[in-house]
Amino acid sequence: MRQRTRITIGVDARTVFCPERRGTGKNLVDLYPRIAELRPDWQFVMYYEQEGFADPFSGIANISKKRIRMKGARWNLWENLRLPLAARSDKVDLLHCPAQSMPRLKLIPIIATIHDIIPLRFDAGGGGNAFKKSERVIRNSLLRSDAVLTVSHFSKSDMSDYFRVNGENIHVLTWAPDSQLCIATTGEIEQVRKKYGINKPYLFTFGATDPRKNTFRVIEAFARMKQNDVDGQLVISGIRDDRSAVYRQKAIAFGVEDDVVFCGFAPDSEIPALLCGAEGLVFASLYEGFGLPLIDAMACNTPALASNVTSLPEVAGDAVLYCDPLSVDSIACGMTEIMTCEKTRARLREQGAKKVKEYTWERTAKTVLNVFEKVLEVHS
């Protein structure tokens, strides 16, 4: 790459500076310190909108933050107008938009991260207007950005097929386990067991009201496992208490209400203990662009049962047990094997410990930097 006096990268960091930091925001917090360390002569500017949130990059000399103030949110003008204008004013060389969308106004080179096209494959309940908006946003990012980052070869193929593009401008990176994850202590495990009333060996799952997460079938499969004289509990995190009634009714209908434990949205600090204390993670999703919970389970030395569809076989390889997510019998069979077979659990722990070493933030940072530098070279 031709040398410049200084490289400045701008980042749309609204998912970092927000009330509840979730997937994309957490990943940026893990990714950018590695990128900054690998390129100490570069500068990184985190653009954000809302004030009052801790700066996870504080103390990193070449990462700064800048608030772009704007009253109101009509027409998404913060992203479409104020962000690109601020980036150009700050002489940013490249803008990274990490959450599917990018500005309509393109004044400098832009790299967009499109994680998947789930909104176009599954109805999230927003109706036709929501679908059309998602399609428009993703199409804009895919066709107008200088390069696209995505999280699996499956996602690359899926969006290439859907939008009928050849995919040569789509680059695959992989995420890595949450850096805050660690093997929980016995005391921490006992603490969450006591808090949530977990008093038997249990399976852990991330539930959701989104049908894509397959929570109804998981509960039914658990009931079927219990009918085969396999005792235990199913612990579900990810469904708010005020939206759990329909799932509780499902458990009652199958006679397992006493052994299905709803944690609401368990705090991030409790997830390692919930994973480490489980006999296994059940991840029977109907569609994923990556499948980060499987990698997190491996980092916690927890066996996992996963769907045999979309990105999950690519991401997990032979380090998990697979099921057909559309078959209650298949899910129940996998649950039974994990709950009853120590040999299977030991094998999955061993293979998971090897597989998770493939996923590091340093590797991800190098992939991202390679794409950054290719785009910068074109525009130098």
TrEMBL record:
The keyword Lyase does not apply. The keyword Lipid metabolism does not apply. Gene3D superfamilies: Glycogen Phosphorylase B (3.40.50.2000). CDD domains: GT4_MtfB-like (cd03809). It comes from the Bacteria. Residues 59-173 form the Glycosyltransferase subfamily 4-like N-terminal domain. GO terms for biological process: lipopolysaccharide biosynthetic process. Keywords: Transferase. Residues 190-354 form the Glycosyl transferase family domain. One of its GO terms (molecular function) is glycosyltransferase activity. This is Glycosyl transferase family 1. It comes from Geoalkalibacter subterraneus. The lineage of its organism: Bacteria, Pseudomonadati, Thermodesulfobacteriota, Desulfuromonadia, Desulfuromonadales.
